[in-house]
Amino acid sequence: MSARWEGLLEQLVQERWSTLLARATLLAATPADAEDLVQDALVATFSSRARFTSLAQAESYVRRAIATRSIDRARSAASERRATDRVAVRPEPPVETTLPGLEVDVLAALARLTPRQRACVVLRHVEDLSVAQTADQLGLSPGAVKRYTSDGATALQRWLGTTTDPRPGDHERPTVELVDGSSTTRGDRS
Amino acid sequence: MSDLGQLLAATETAVARARATSTPPPDALAGTLRRVRRRRTVRHSVQSVAGVAVVAALGVTAWLGTHVPDPPAPATTGTPTASPTTTPTPTPTPAAVAPAATVHVADPWPVPDGLIESTGPGWSLVQDMQTRTGTDPSKATPEDYRTLLTLVSPAGEHHPLLEVASDRVLTGWFDWTAGQPMVLFTSTDHSAASPEQLAGTLDLRTGDLTPWADLPASAMWIGGTRQGTTVWAVPQWDDTDMPDGGMPMPRNVLGPQLRMHGFAPTEFRLTVRAPDGTQRDLGPIDDSRYTTSLSPDGRWVTATAADGGLLLVDLRSGTSTTASQVPAEPPCTVGGWTGPDELLLSCGVPAELRVLDAREPSSAPRTVGTSEFTVVDATPLGDGRVALGILTQEAPCDVGGDAAVLADGVVSPLTGQWGPYDHASGSQVAGGSVLTELNVCYVGHGKAGRQRTISTDATTGAVTELGSLVGEVTDDGWDRSLYGWLVGR
């Protein structure tokens, strides 16, 4: 008898793999990274203590984990090393995606951004999250979100020739205080 | 949505469409399942350390492999009255079961003479799960993994004691008195067709496990004393009682959180095991409303009474009594102990902290302070102060209490030297410090600090990192993940 989580995980992989991979493709630099990112997010999600009652709930959790993990993976030298190792032993290349020219250009442009820029642009412009929501999800200060979103969107606009209305507040340039393992912004803990 | 947003969304849709007919890589599901199973297996070890059951660490087969024999004559539950109700007679079971054969589960590593004996409160044991650097999870062999049982000093020095045999999985350890060479432990032979889970004492010098033949490995751990008495909740089940899914995920992260009521309608019986193996059956026990908690000196256990009230069981006399003046509103939860007989209740959020004298269960709990958040795991520090955890995270991570101290009615966080995104996933108090596993649970959004285990001085707040929980890369060819911290008493 398999556990409930196993059935849910299998269902998620079988039914939602393409959509999860698509989200990861926006946030990862390479197709191989995207697959690894999805798997990392699945492992993180189903290894956690969270309980899921539906496929949609689990998918939502994994999608959030993909965004967060995209930054964590990039920040972690260990993860990069493991990813390199995995690629080195991978017997066959990941499936290449055949896309129209514009979408290929978009992915190429996204790949030129930093992981934080990619994550902020995707969450702000695709998910339509607010600065605060994006900051909360990614663990960045609001100022950092504004900076990454603005810089990322400006770069994409330049490379792709699109016009983009700035997200409210994105082009403000407050003093940015990064929040990561070494420098911190107090306030999350009361 | 902006033009850029529409373009990005269209790209995402195009990628999904282009990949819609493709199947995941062959190793995607299998590899992911393998990684999750491994993490969840060791997670149960972590939970066991914090005082939860050893059940189901390797699944249903192992879990059901040790059925409980028919219990002795039933004892009565506490009655919903303010008056103590003595059980008819706690039924002792003589230690008639012959000791089981010793099982060698791990090989010793060389350690300095007298190292184990020189340890004191604040030293800890941990499972060091290692993976050979560069291992592809989908193609890993047993040789790519090894597990060391490691002794960790309060300063964070690691001393490997044992290397676990490759055909065994350690599913949890419960109790260790610092300075002693034996630890209460469970292990499973995962290579067997029908894995058998063993619970018993493990000799840290030899790696030999001496099973307790008198106690099923599926018994849930409630607590123990320095004198060697242990307290258990023993399930009375058959196959049809298995809950859907087999391994219910506990609501909480750590602590006494693998709840009995998750296995409903299985009945559990409160069982006290003396060091000589003699058992006393103190009757059915339920944790559906109030969780179980053993008082510091091992006299009292909390539970849920038949009417849903707070039940106090005196393990000395076998008396079960319902506390009659615990307020219904705001609802109170068991917050731990502020003294040998003083039960701390955390009522509402923000929490009013109330203390109930277990010797006077009909008395009204007195207010001793307030807390912005629910309080858990209160443990006396021995100097009048009480170490405790405060639940600052939302569900499903609303369990691991961030370290704090209660003194003179004031709850003061001990997190001044923690990172802003660090949150506890479980704590143990010993030697004047709080050992805390950080960031094991992720609430699903926001930033989480690095997963690691730290020791926080309960007086100064000074933090010592004891180890990284997951995926620490080393230069010796093995990546390390540390699980299942157990602090010596």
UniProtKB/TrEMBL annotation, chain A:
Domain RNA polymerase sigma factor 70 region 4 type: 105-150
Compositional bias segments (type: Polar residues): 181-190
Coiled coil: none
Annotated region (Disordered), positions in chain: 160-190
Molecular function GO labels: DNA binding; sigma factor activity
Domain of life of the source: Bacteria
Domain RNA polymerase sigma-70 region: 20-78
A Pfam family of this chain: Sigma70_r4_2
GO biological processes: DNA-templated transcription initiation
Similarity comment text for this entry: Belongs to the sigma-70 factor family. ECF subfamily.
Protein name per the record: RNA polymerase sigma factor
Protein species of origin: Cellulomonas xylanilytica
Source organism phylogeny: Bacteria, Bacillati, Actinomycetota, Actinomycetes, Micrococcales
UniProtKB/TrEMBL annotation, chain B:
Superkingdom of origin organism: Bacteria
Biased composition (Low complexity): 75-86
Keywords: Membrane, Transmembrane, Transmembrane helix
Transmembrane segments: 44-64
Residue ranges of the region described as Disordered: 69-98
Name of the molecule in the record: Uncharacterized protein
Organism per entry: Cellulomonas xylanilytica
